[in-house]
Amino acid sequence: MVIEDKLQELKEQINKIVPSGITISDVEFEGPELVIYTDDPKQFADQADLIKVLARDLRKRIVVRPNILEDPERAAQEIRTVVPENAGISDLFFDPETGEVLIEAEKPGVVIGKNGVTLREITKQIGWTPKVVRTPPIESSTVKQIRTFLRSVKDERKAFLRKIGHRIHRETTSKDQWLRVTTLGCCREVGRAAFLISTPESKVLVDCGEKPGNTANGTPYIYVPEIYPLDSLDAVVLTHAHLDHCALVPLLFKYGYEGPVYSTPPTRDLSAMLQLDYLDVVRKETDKIPYTSNEVKTYIKHSITLNYGSVTDIAPDIKLTFHNAGHILGSAIAHFHIGEGLYNIAFTGDFNYQKTRLFSPAVSSFPRLEALFMESTYGGSNDIQPQRRDAEERLYEAVSTTLKRGGKVIIPAFAVGRSQEVMLALEEGIRKKKIPPVKIYLDGMIREATAIHTTYPEYLNNDLRNQIFREGLNPFLADAFVQVDSPDLREQVISGEPCVIITTSGMLSGGPVMEYLKALGPDERNMLIFVGYQADGTLGRRIQKGWREIPLGWRETIVINLEIATTDGFSGHSDRKQLMNYVAHLQPRPEKIFTIHGDENKTIDLASSIYKRYRIETHSPMNLETYRMI
Amino acid sequence: MVIEDKLQELKEQINKIVPSGITISDVEFEGPELVIYTDDPKQFADQADLIKVLARDLRKRIVVRPNILEDPERAAQEIRTVVPENAGISDLFFDPETGEVLIEAEKPGVVIGKNGVTLREITKQIGWTPKVVRTPPIESSTVKQIRTFLRSVKDERKAFLRKIGHRIHRETTSKDQWLRVTTLGCCREVGRAAFLISTPESKVLVDCGEKPGNTANGTPYIYVPEIYPLDSLDAVVLTHAHLDHCALVPLLFKYGYEGPVYSTPPTRDLSAMLQLDYLDVVRKETDKIPYTSNEVKTYIKHSITLNYGSVTDIAPDIKLTFHNAGHILGSAIAHFHIGEGLYNIAFTGDFNYQKTRLFSPAVSSFPRLEALFMESTYGGSNDIQPQRRDAEERLYEAVSTTLKRGGKVIIPAFAVGRSQEVMLALEEGIRKKKIPPVKIYLDGMIREATAIHTTYPEYLNNDLRNQIFREGLNPFLADAFVQVDSPDLREQVISGEPCVIITTSGMLSGGPVMEYLKALGPDERNMLIFVGYQADGTLGRRIQKGWREIPLGWRETIVINLEIATTDGFSGHSDRKQLMNYVAHLQPRPEKIFTIHGDENKTIDLASSIYKRYRIETHSPMNLETYRMI
Ligand SMILES: [Zn+2]
Ligand SMILES: [Zn+2]
Ligand SMILES: [Zn+2]
Ligand SMILES: [Zn+2]
Ligand SMILES: [Zn+2]
Hints:
Chains A, B: Keywords: DNA-binding, Endonuclease, Exonuclease, Hydrolase, Metal-binding, Nuclease, RNA-binding, Transcription, Transcription regulation, Transcription termination, Zinc. Two copies of one chain form a homodimer. Chain A is an alpha/beta fold. The first copy, chain A, contains 21 helices and 28 strands. In chain A, strands 12-11-10-9-8-7-28 form a seven-stranded mixed beta sheet. In chain A, strands 13-14-15-16-17-26-27 form a seven-stranded mixed beta sheet, with helices on one face. In chain A, a hairpin with a 4-residue loop joins strand 15 (about 330-340) and strand 16 (about 345). The interface of A and B includes residues 178, 232 and 622 of A.
C-alpha cells in the first residue's frame, strides 16, 4: 500500500477508536512514531488509557500533538504565572518534536500541585504537554547545548522525521526471505565496532567506532560494497557512547549518510561530548582529522533517542528495542526483531553482568532471541576479575597508605564510566570512614560526564536513585569533590595538601594527568593507581611494565619515583565467569552465539567454551565475513 | 606506476632481451596478454625460444604480432599457391586478434611440408603466423558462426581487449590485504552456480547459472550489493558450459556488465549453443525470457578463451589457471592465485575423478592450494555409482534384449556429455560384437554437440585422440550413427527396423524424445533407458516412479507400455567414493574445503566426512554468506 493510503486507513481506524468529540485533524509518520494531530489535546490527555489502546490496536508508537502549539515565550510566561515561585523552576524546554514542555524545577512537587491540580491548570492554559523533572544537581553544558541546537533546527528536523517516517513505513516488495550479518570491524580485536544487518528490504548498521591507538588502520570496513552507498542504510544504531563504538558516526554523514542514528538519550549526549574530545585529541596527533564539529552537529540533527524497553519500527521489517547493558550510562543491548516473528538477533555492545554502584546488571531475558553477538573483552579462560567489593577494599588501602605518608594519589580514568564508579567508591569510603576525609579533585571532562549522569537519573540503578531522591543524599554532590577548572587551581592542588586526583586520560595518552604526573612523579610518597585496562603501546602500559623515565618533548623528562599500583575490578565489562554465567541465564536460549570485541585468542576460547559447556552453536567471526541467520 | 610508464619500461626491457636487428615498434596490453608489435615477425619466428624467454623474464603472456598484417584475401591466395592441392585445405581462418591464420586441412602434414619447409615458406610470404589443424571430421555450425561473428567485430574487440588489458594492469593502491568469497547460489542446492571472489582491489565472479526446473527462483543472488554495480567486476570465469553454470552470463551484460568472460574455447562454443537452446525452451514455457540472442552475441564478443594450464592475469592481483575437470568437453577447475604468493583458491566446477571414454580424470595437483570449493552432487554417503565398465555391460544387455525381441531403444540424454559417452560405448559394443550391428539415430542437438567435440580433439583424452589420429579410427564417424535431420526421417525411424535412438531432452522435459515416446511408448517390445539423473518434478522421474499414462496437451495421452530401465554409472560427476578419493589425492592438501553444488544433506554429509577422515577444515556454506580466506 502507498504511504498516503496507509495513513488514510490509520486515520479511519483511529476515528473509530477515539470517542466522538475528539477531532483528529491529521495523522503522520514522524521518525518511528505515528503522530496524531488533534484540536482537542486536553480531552486526549484526560483519557489516560486512550493512547495505550491506540498503540496496542495499531501496533505503533503513538504521539498525540495539539494542532496548534502556543508560542513558547507566551506559554513560558503562563507557566510561570500558574506555578508558585517556591517551585524553583530552573529551566523550561519546549520540544516541538513531541509537543512537550520539560519543566525543570528544584521542587517538582510544587509544579505538580496537590493531586496534580497545578499541572492540569498548565495543560489547560497552554497547548504543550507539561513534563516535570527535578533540576539536575549539576548542570551539563553538553545537554544544554544539544537541546538548544535541536530547537534551532526544528523545521529541518521535522522534515527529516517525516522523510524517515515514510521510509520506515514504505511498501515492501521482495519475495525473498533472508537475514545476514556482515562483520565490518571488532572481530578478533577490540575496537572499530561495526556490524551490518541486512534483509532483502533493509540495511542497518550497528555501531561505527574507531580503533583506539591505531590511527593507521583505525576505521571499520565501511567502504566495502555491502554497505554502499551509505544512504542505502535504513538506520545506524548505537549501543553506547564509548569511542570504539561511536567515534566514526559523524564520518558516515560526511560520506553521504542521511538517515537516523538511534540511541538512548544519554548515549546521544555522551557521544557528542566524546566525539568532540576525540577530534581535539586527533588534531594534536595528526592534521588528518576524519571530520569536524560540523559533522557532529549533523549527527545530532539526525539522532533519534529511544528509552530502554521501547519497541520501535526502524525499517519496514525491523523493530529495535534497547535493553540495559550495565556498562556505562545509557549503554544498551540492541535487540532486533526481524519480519513478523521471523527472527530475533541481539548485539550486547559492551556489557556488565554484575551490579555496580551505578548500574543494574545487563538484561539477560528477551521476548525472543535466536542469535546473539556478544562482547568478549574478558573472554579468555584466565580473565577473572576480583569482586567489586575486594577491588574497593584494595583501593581504600592504597589511598589510606598514601595519605598517611603525606602523599597524593593520582587515578587516571576515562571520563565516562570508571571515573564515576571510583568517585562513588571513594565517597562511600569517606562517609563510612574507611579512608580519611580528603579532597578529591576532578580534572578533565569528568565533571561534565558526571553532570550528564545526574541529568538522567532514570538510567542509574534503583539503589543509587533511591539514595539520591528518597534519602536526598546525592553522592556526586559530596563536599569532597572539587572540580579543577583553572591552571591556577591545578597548581594549588599540586602544591597543596595530600589528596586524591581523578583525571583523564585513562591510559596516560595526554590530558591533564600528564601535568600531575610531571609534578608529582618524582616524589616517592605519591601513588599512581591504575583502575582500568592499559592497552599495549600506551604510556600507562609502559609505566606498568617498569618505565621510570619518560621523555616529554625534546627537553623534558618525567621522573617516576612515585609508587605504582593497579586495582583491577572496576571494569565495566563482564569477566570470563560473568560472560559464561550470562549465557547460562539467557532467556530464551539462543541458537547461535558470535563472540566479538576481544583479542583473537579470547573470542575463540570463549566461543569454544560456550559450545562445550552449553552446546550452543558458536562462531568467532573474522572481520569482513557475512553470516546467514535465516 | 601509470600504465603508459609501465609499457614504456616493458618495451625497454624487451629491447634489451631481443637480438639487435629485430625492431620492436610497439608494446601493448590486450586482454591478459602483452602484445609485442614488430616489423620483423619472421626473425622473431626463427628464434623459437625468444618468446619463452620474454614470457619468463617479464612474467607475462607474450604475443608477437607483425606490425602490418597483409590483407587476408591476398594472404589466402598466397597460401593456396604455396600449399599443394592434395593437402585438402578446407578452411582458412584469419584471427586478427592473434595475427594467426588457422589452416584447416584434411592432410595437415602436406601443409607443413617436409621438415616444415612449406610452413616456413608461408611465414615468409605473409605476415600472418600459420597454425595448422586437421579439418574437423564433423563441421560445427556453432564454431563457424562464432568465428565469423568474432571476425565481423574485430575492431570493437581490439578496443575492448585494450581496455581490459589496461584495467588488468592498472595501478593498485590499497594497503589492506584480504580475500573473501561470497556465495551467490549453488549452496545446499544444485543449480544457479555463482561465487564472488573479492579482494580490496578486485572482484571476480565464478559461474552464473540457472536453477534447472525452477523458473520462479532460478537466478543466483546477483542483485545483492556485494556485486553491484556489475561493471565493478573485473572478470567472469566459467568452469563449463552446462546451463546451471553459464545460462545467465548473457543476463550480466543486460544488467550493465562490460568486462571479459574467461573460459576454455570449447566452453565458449558449447555455452553459446546451450544458451540459445535455453532461450528456445524458456520461450516455450513463459513469455518472460531473461535475455535475447543479442546478449548471447554480446557475451561472445566479450569472451576470452584460455587453454588448460595457461597462467593468466585477470586482475591486478589475481591470476587464473584452468585445469581439466573431466566432466564435459572443456570443463575446467578454475584455480586462482591471489596476490604475490598470498593465497590460492580453486573451484572444481563439476568434475569427474574417473577416467571416461572421452576425458582424463580431473586434475588433483596444483602448484599451491589453500582453499577448495568442491562440488558434491554425489556427496551423500550412499551415492556410490557402478563402475563405468559395469554400467556399459548393463547397457549392452538392455540393448541386446530389446533388439532381439524386435523392439527399439530410446535413450534420452543431455546433448553435451552423456550423449557422447553413450555413443562411444555403443560404437565399441558394435565393433567388439557385444551388441548386434544396429543403426544409432541421433536426434536433437547431439550431432552439433558432437561436432564441437571433434573440433577440439586436444580436449579429449589421450586414448581417444590416439584412436582418432594414429589409428585413424574416429568412433564419432562410425557408420552406425545417423543424424535425424528431418520430420520425414524421424517418421521412418519410428516405423522402421529395430534401432537405438539417442535424443534430447535428457529428463523428458520437451524435445524430440517426446515424439519418440508418443510413437513407441505403447509397444511393449521397446525400451526406454535412462542413463542420467532424473530430477524431482520432471517427466523422467515420474516415469521412473511408475507413471504409465501421460497426458499430453488437452486431448492426447502417451501410453507407456515399453520397458523402463535405468543404467547408472554414465555420470559426468565423481561419486562419493571418488570425491573422498580426490580429497585424499589433492596435492597440496588444502587448509579449507567448502562443499557446494549438492542437496543440503549431501553437502553437509560430505563436509563432515572429509573433516572426520582428513582433519581438513570444512564448511557447507549457505547462499549469501561471505567467508574470509585471509
Ligand atoms: Zn564500552
Ligand atoms: Zn567497546
Ligand atoms: Zn555440469
Ligand atoms: Zn553443475
Ligand atoms: Zn563456520
